[in-house]
Hints:
The protein is of the alpha/beta class. The protein contains ten helices and twelve strands. Strands 1-4-5-6-7-10-11-12 form an eight-stranded parallel β-barrel, surrounded by seven helices. The longest helix has 11 residues. It is globular, with a radius of gyration of 17 Å. About 50% of the residues are buried. The C terminus is likely disordered.
Amino acid sequence: MLKVRVIPTLLWKDFGLVKGVGFDSWRRVGSVLPAIKVYNSRDVDELIVVDITASHEKNAPDHESVADFAEECFVPLTVGGGITRLDEVLHLLHAGADKVSMNTSAYTDPSLIDQVAGKFGAQCVVASIDVKLDANGVYKCFSHAGSIDTGKDPVTWARELVDRGAGEILLTSIDRDGTMQGYDLALTEQVTRAVNVPVIASGGAGNYQHMIDIVTQAGASAVAAASIFHFTEQTPAGAKQAMKAAGIAIRENFVSYP
């Protein structure tokens, strides 16, 4: 059984760190580099950094900024936002990223998942799926930072992404994002049952019990979170301690850096 990971998510916009609710009402909560330095000493397992405006504004990934982030990051780093070509992935990996997260580009050019997995391996590919309930209560996948309804069903889409070579799924509930009311258990369980790769649950964590529930009840292999760490006194180390106390196998501490 894989050990469960705790992964803070850093959303990056115009050189600042931001957080919103439901992929909207973004407010600045700091800067990326200082946050990475803090998390280095907070017992995190990995970090995810996503440029949330890159795809919408058709900007290429900012390799220079990623190189700055990677220089200060002592845990595995996943980078997303604006990736549309294989050579951009190569540049991000050379800049220090360990994995790349792709969302919008997977809808516009699904073969890019095949290309990246074929060139760099499935372990490099984190397929990001942002999901929202439509007016009829049906789960639908959204692209361009949650602004465009693709019409795709998340379970079917997750299966296709894995078939194309994705090594992990980053599954985010747009409805739960930033609410701190808990992950979407039903959505996560549907996807975890459908694929044979790790699923990172995202969107809604407000306390440690939410993290325990998404693992024990919905089968998530990792928990991604932002608001809980930005706006409360709860910490990644505290989350791991709570999950361990609940009988969940977690990754033991990384070496902390000053």
